[in-house]
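Researcher: Quick sanity check before group meeting.
Model: Go ahead. Protein one:
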Amino acid sequence: MTAIPRPTADSPAALLSRREEAGAHLVQPWPTAGKVGLGAPGAVGDGDGIYILHEDGRRLIDGPAGMWCVNLGHRRAELAQVMQEQAMALSYASPWYTSTTPALDLAARLAAHAPGDLDHVFLTTGGTSAVETALRFAFFRNDVKGRPDKKLIVTRDRAYHGASYLSGSLNGRPRDQDWMFAARDLVIRLSCPDPFRRPAGMTVDGFTDLLVEEFRQAIAHHGAERIGAFIAEPIQASGGVVVPPPGYLKRMRDLCRAHDILYISDEVVTAFGRLGEVFASQEVFGIEPDMITFAKGVTSGYFPLGGVMMSAGMLDDLRKSNHPDATFAHGLTYSSHPIGCAVALKNLDLLEAGVLAEARANAGHFQTALKRLEDHALVGEVRGMGLMACIECVADKESRNPLELDLEVGKRIDTHCQERGLLVRPLIQMCVMSPPLTITRPQIDTMVDILDAAIRATMDDLVRDGLWHG
């Protein structure tokens, strides 16, 4: 087959012109009412490995890997090639009445990697649809089993689970639901398991006990007969890379099992190498969920795909119900898309062939190098695991008070980073990094050097503007 030509990249001037002329027609995610439809953010026109090219000609390290997803980096020829080959062989088939070889092969490959008996998969189009599918299946299962009141969903502060009505109702980040209608009557919200924000004077072990007891009391208050599922990201990604206390997730899982509550592990971010494993639930955290949701890194962002791993025991239990003809009336036009499945298979090949091992080998250097940024007066904590990390800024280290939200310190740091060759993801008073798994140690060192200079510049700005006194 003829090699895929690389598209000619737009010149910086052409990119800028296109954004100014056409950007007003594109509505971006998460707009504010006062700016919706008034233009697009800075454009990028090319990518290569861990780098992207900004419209003004700057070559930037892609610190967030797109949106936690470009795990194998940009311009990966093997993934582009398999997309072309599958599109020329079979571009689409309806999942309602056909199956395809890529989907069947991917299901088997994923089952081999999943923990315990999670050997079934429902393939979706991304993370939001994966979470929506898991929740709707939990509802369906309880209805079929004659438990229509077992519908409440337990989630946590600073969680992020998606952008549909139901999945978005679970989100607990600042500002996410200020103006969004949500299914609040279905949601029980627990505290964020962030050790950095634990009560003053409390040990981490004591904090863990407090969190587990909170869940226990919620079960007692609402009734296990009304709680259908507990959903948790192993690491709360968009909430600021919150790494839970040791043993916390396992104890929450034990409570779920004791009270017949489904445990959904939301691995949309943490799966496919971000923590060095295909799935992190058991390998990293020692838990065997009832369902695992995934997306993002399954195709390294080259094609929209997601899914839900489901336990065989859960499905077997459902088949034994008194309603064998009950229909799980849920599906997506692009479920099991053959191109997406083909890309995911090649993505797994590359992960297994060495990328996972490289990611594990470099994770310690990544975390250690970033940790030195805590020397800055502005930085309260640098935390993370694997190849994901967060820098959280504070007004002062002793009280751990975050800076006023309207300072948007993360955006200030990101601006200074971009001037120096790095793109990070700003989240109010935090900056998040999750670079491609293919990043090298020298490139990690470059990232940290840029962050160091950008934080220094931000502190100078805040002092100059009279917003912070160091």
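Researcher: Fine. The other one?
Model: Protein two, sequence then structure:
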Amino acid sequence: MPRGEKAEEPAAFAGLIEKAGLGGAVTFAVADAETGEFIERYNREARLPPASVAKAATAYYALERLGPGFRFETRLRATGPVTNGRIEGDLVLEGSGDPTFDSDDLGDMFKALKEAGVHAVAGQFRIKPDALPALPWIDPDQPVQVAYNPAISGLNLNFNRVHFEWTKAKDGYDITMQARALRYRPAVSVATMALEDRRSPVYTYEKAPEADRWTVAQRALGNDGARWLPISRPEAYIRDVSLTIARSHGLVLKPGPNVAGPATGEVLVTHASRPLDEMLTGMLRYSTNLTAETVGLTASMAGGVRPASLIRSAREMNRWLGDVCGTRATGFVDHSGLGYGSRVSAEDMVRILLNARERGDRLKPLLRDFRSNIPGVKAKTGTLNFVSGLAGYIDVPRGRDLVFAIFTGDLARRDAVEVALRERPPGSRPWARRSRGMQQDLIARWASLAA
């Protein structure tokens, strides 16, 4: 605490913190939305992992750098002329980083190519995925099987996940590995699954030269079921799926090497993503990590930085937040909040939200309504093992509207969890429930003070 500043008196809300019984650290801040004056703060010096609350900062960063109408584009190019329906050259699939591109979109592109009269390619099918850096994962400190930690590329498909499904059969299980969307569900060869007679671990993973090789403990499957698994090589994945989908439209392609250097040739088909503001609404609602990372990387590039890593891109976002929002010590290490190394204070998170409100109020409408006993709360949640966050806006009828941030974390307890157990460690769910209960109590208190 700076010299000369009076110590805070937490007595008014100390009972709420004590009742939660979280251990570790609690910090929060709430400010008047109009004046920016801080009304109540606790444990001001604490900087905790924001978890997915980081996505609110990323959304604001992307909106300001790219604009709400920005769209990612994926293109099919011909490097030679089209003569009597035959491309006299290569067919190139060129990406710009669209995180929402899926098998249906890919299928529609090849359907459009067929409808344009293309039925043969003299050269090879090649991809251009270098619009974004190729990264094998978002955070290395995660269990191998979690689909929310996929690889990143300039060409992404189905959030870089493969759909593993099992159906009970007479002699065991029938299993499939698919690039599953609503209309197109091609089988894949770049990810395989084998059943093994063991109790644990439930999944094992090996990155073999030709495919991601998974095994699963058959005894853990039970009845019919399915889950998504991460893809570690998005380029091989989208190439594999493209060959299958193109074949379904009568176009047999010969795979070739990736395109290096500028893309050339005529664009035959273009797929545009939804506008950025719609994409970010989905990201904030479903907390999709791949969307956060790709839009964050793209926003950094729009500012003139060509980041080779997420931490380098996050460093550019930290700099921008300091310059534009007046944050004092934001320490994001990625754009999704999945990285445990991120640290932010509650006050700085409030400063970001206040600034977003002042500069056009683009962020608040994208946040989802927070389920609370108090109406008028729009916020972003965040959860890691024994880490919880909540930040957003409270509209108080006939009172002062508020901006708030709450972070909690028992970091010692989180650090004690083995990586293999971090998908659902013992004790994490009741801890998270208690943290959410405290968040609800604090929101109710602040709404009452502001009325």
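Researcher: One line on it for the slide.
Model: Residues 1-10 have pLDDT under 50 and may be disordered.
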